[in-house]
Design goal:
mainly alpha
Length: 162
């Protein structure tokens, strides 16, 4: 059994050595075409061609996408610049309106203060007039009492009328 195994191994070693040394000569002698089949080559070439086309299309799509991204980034930056300008303009308008409103508030406060001062003066004047009226009433009452008292004590006073 060992002997058979050794003979088989020896046979395969000889075949491998001979085939590696004279590969083409052996194939030619046996009239075997060892080149790959043309159908297999064409199918592989077609597959390679298709893959190359897909790669080219992918690269084209990638280029178009990069261009579109660049275009969108440019549009975004332009719109940001416009919006930034509009925001600045709106902030300026708001500041102007706020300033105008503050001026109006100051003017209204002055007008209110003036009105309050006038009301206060009018209140004092009314108070003084009330005091003057009371004083006059008291004086008139006092004079009337005095005359009544004089008439009751001295009698009727001669009238100065003829």
């Amino acid at each position: 059994m060992k002997r058979k195994l050794i003979l088989v191994l020896l046979y395969w070693v000889v075949v491998v050595v001979l085939s590696s040394c004279a590969k083409e000569d052996i194939f030619k002698a046996l009239k075997i075409d060892y080149t790959p089949a043309p159908e297999k080559i064409t199918a592989e070439q077609k597959t390679i061609s298709d893959l190359k086309k897909q790669l080219a299309a992918s690269k084209k799509n990638e280029k178009e996408l990069k261009n579109r991204i660049a275009q969108l980034e440019k549009e975004i930056s332009e719109k940001e610049a416009v919006l930034s300008g509009q925001v600045g303009q709106l902030e300026l308008e708001i500041a102007e309106q706020e300033s105008a409103l503050n001026e109006q508030i100051v003017e209204l406060k002055k007008a209110i203060d003036e009105q309050e001062a006038i009301i206060s003066i009018q209140g004092k004047v009314i108070g003084l007039l009330d005091d003057a009226e009371r004083t006059l009433q008291k004086n008139i009452e006092a004079q009337v009492r005095e005359k009544t008292l004089q008439q009751s004590v001295f009698g009727p006073l001669p009238s100065s009328r003829p």
